[in-house]
Amino acid sequence: MKTKLKLEKIYKRYGNKTVLKALDLEVEDGEFMVVLGPSGMGKSTLLRVIVGIEDLTAGRVIVDGKDVSNLPPNRRDIAMVFQNYALYPNMTAYKNIAFPLRMNKMPPAKIKKKVSEIAETLKIADILDRDISLLSGGQKQRVALARCLVRNPKMFLLDEPLSNLDARVRFSARTELKKLQKELGYTFVYVTHDQQEASTLADRVAVLRNGQIDQLDDYENLINAPRSKWLGDFVGDFPMNFIDGNMIGIEGKEIGFRDSWISEQGNEISATVEYCQVNEDIYRAYCKIDSGSEAEDDNKIVASDDSKAKVILRVAKRYNPGDRIQFSLERYNVYSGGILESTSSSQKNSKVTS
Ligand code: ADP
Q1: Which residue among 129, 177, 215, 323 is least enclosed by CB atoms within 10 Å?
Q2: Does residue 208 sit in the same domain as residue 241?
């Protein structure tokens, strides 16, 4: 697959604050790349740097093999769709879409042809005469996309483009966006803090943390084998549960928690949580062992052998003191010093990249 976008050792500083730090990322031609991360991690900054509306402190932005780092935004051929779409509210959809072409002094007849082709593709031909202020959120999104598409850009950057839509429209807009991207073969770099968007839209997800890509992987692998405890806490619909214990040995199929220990019964072990606490934003559940209760299929166990020998569980829900936990030894990760050391052999798709 051809590389569409290559970011090399990107730095962005505001005063003495470093937002992006030696960030590397490669996006393939036709890929839907989602950049996922909590607010304030620099996701929007990253897009602004790629499109060129923000200067780089250091590093290179390479599009189709060409270094565009020093080119102004209008010569980079990259379209950016903003969260609020940045449409002109008092113009019709047609005028909004035609705007960049008029700026480029394209002859009116050619503009008309281009706009109607795009409108046909995006199924908005029937709303071209309407004022933007009268359109629904989903329609506005398509008009904003159309305005980018008419310029035939090399790639698209999208900054949380669905976050202003209400939940139901968001769902259909998401499906439509993905379909469109695949049908037209566009390269998308899509920024969001929303896990669901990452899981449904992305070919690959790049998690942005401390100015760098912490893990680049498909969403499934990110969930199954987050390469750090921080990622284990961040990715997924709910954070991992972290449970302290003494690991007697996974090889021997025995795991102990604190002073107690358990052995595998069939393929299952069970435990009772003694107490839970939130520590440095990491949710820990301390447990005492029980055995013999019924298994839940979805549960995953994650174990660590760092100095304190922590056993970390990812289970289907958060547990309360006194709850009984049951989990399967089929799925676990071993973390050492907070970093993924290995994944259980029976885990599916356990490819790990760093
Ligand atoms: P995200 O999109 O992940 O929420 P942003 O890229 O908006 O994060 O911001 C990352 C950090 O950079 C934030 O701490 C923000 O305050 C800072 N930042 C963004 N733009 C500027 C700016 N123009 N001047 C100074 N600091 C900025």
Answers
A1: 129
A2: no
